[in-house]
Amino acid sequence: MTLSPILTIAWKDVLSEFRSRETLSAMLIFCLIVVVIFNFVFEPGSEIVREMIGGILWVAITFAGILGLNRSFIYEVDQGCLLGLLLCPVDPHVIYYGKMLGNLLFMLILEIIILPLMVVFFNLNIFHILLPLWVILFLGTLGFSAVGTLLSAISVNTRAREILLPVLLFPIAIPILLAAVKSTSQLINSGQFTETLAWIKILAGFDIIFLVLSGLLFEYVVED
Amino acid sequence: MIKIKNIKKAFGTLHALREICLEIQRGDFWIIVGPNGAGKTTLLKIIATLSKPSAGAIEIDAMDPLKHRLQARKQIGFIGHQSFLYPNLSAAENLLFYARMYGLKNYDQIVTSRLEQVGLTDRRDDLVRNFSRGMQQRLTIARALLSDPSVILLDEPFSGLDQQGIDLFAQLFSSLISPERIIIMTTHNLRLGWEMASHYAILSRGRLAKSGCCDATNFESFQSDYRTLTRELN
Fold it and tell me: Are B147 and B77 in contact (CB under 8 A)?
């Protein structure tokens, strides 16, 4: 497997998005709405916020992520570009990893914007745990986009594609979401990276499983 | 040479292709005609390695393209009724993207020469979303020719084009004919296809009803055969 076509596909997705700003802006607006609504519900800086913050953060990220994942393959299918990609002399898993990398980048950009906003809205003090928090965010997002990209390719050819993706994705991504929410909450509450290590190992383990399996299964998803 | 040996393709209980046999030599321009649902696109997709046959085999220059898919795809240029182009990328960016995906060396040079070939040099930095249907189709041709393929597959390339566009593309496709190249085109435009092609194949309900050389007969008898055979088998 060569890296160059994977990066080429991700480059193409980022450049297209930079020109249209359709997906990222929708994801960002959705994320902001979620954060604002939760901000009205909970008292900023309160104990309950510290307990719930992991859940709030991942609800915002994953639901906004669904919007991006849904668009990911719709964009390819609309102009027949998926067929164009499949005609290229590269293995199907190269296409999968390229698309997955694009989706991962969009979600990480979203997180870079939304995390400082959450700090302000919920009066959080997370500067001392920023690095481990980013490790958790990265691993959780990687697993979510790994399985999400595969399921997006499955759902795109169905009539109810926008509905089908979340219905398929959330049950399968439960191990990732559970580990991500638990480790984020524990880290913010305790401030100790070592306490979250067990969850982070689970996250990393599921990331590897989802990345490998999805790459292998992609060929059967796009095959006629 | 492309050898198609007893190809069958079934989707569940639906038989899209039944025992298709063809031999296509280098330098040939084949048209595959038939009513909707006859199996024309399915056959092209199998040749393009996009679909596996349920039975039978296919050879491109004595190589099984399904076993050596990546090698075979380098030799194949495919033009369908969809453009395969990204609307938010410019003409040059679209070609650069595909050139990199094909692993071509000197891709900047190749992109420039292909844009020149289809008359889009002046519009190289314009976004494809602002292109007319005709310009998109010209860029599609440039995309398909990037790797200088020895097999060109055209799947109803005239659909959605006005008469001026059809004339332009017929001219462009005719200019692609060379002794080293095989061109296979599916079309509903019998007259135009007949004028361009050296050989024809009539498909009906997945069967090869008739095939032959265009020089050996005239258009009227070809048209009459087409009508009779597609009616009989339907």
Answer: yes
What residue in B sits closest to A10 (Cα-Cα)? B97
Read off the pLDDT of residues A25-71 as tens digits, 9 standing for 90 and up.
999 999 999 999 999 888 887 888 888 899 999 999 999 999 999 98
CB burial class (10 A; 0-12, 13-18, 19+) of residue A125?
exposed
CA distance A179 to A149: 20
pLDDT at res. A43: 83
Q: Are B34 and B82 in contact (CB under 8 A)?
A: no
- Which residues on chain A are in Cβ contact (under 8 Å) with B70? 89-91
In one-letter notation, the amino acid at residue B230 is T
Classify the C-alpha dihedral B204-B59-B80-B28 as positive or negative: negative
> How does strand B182-186 pair with strand B29-33?
parallel
CB of A79 within 8 Å of a chain B CB? The answer is: yes
List of chain B residues with pLDDT < 70: 232-234
Mutate one of A81, A82, A87 to test the B interface: name it (highest B CB count within 10 A): A87
The size of the A-B interface in CB pairs under 8 A is 77
Task: Give the residue extent of every domain in chain B.
Answer: 2-82+151-233
Interface test with A, best of B17, B47, B83, B97 (most A CBs within 10 A): B97
Chain A, nearest residue to B146 by Cα: A88
> Is B102 close to A89, i.e. CB distance below 8 A?
yes
Q: Which pLDDT value is given to residue B233?
A: 53
Bridge-partner residues for A58, per DSSP?
A: none
Structure token digits, residue B59: 């050879």
Whether residue B80 contacts residue B99, with contact meaning beta carbons closer than 8 Å, is answered with: no
Query: How many CB atoms are closer than 10 A to CB B85?
Result: 25
CA angle, B7 then B10 then B16, to 5°: 75
What is the distance between the alpha carbons of residues A30 and A53, in angstroms, rounded to a whole number?
A: 17
For domain B2-82+151-233, the CATH architecture is 3-Layer(aba) Sandwich (3.40)
Chain A partners of B78 at a C-beta cutoff of 8 Å?
Answer: 83, 87
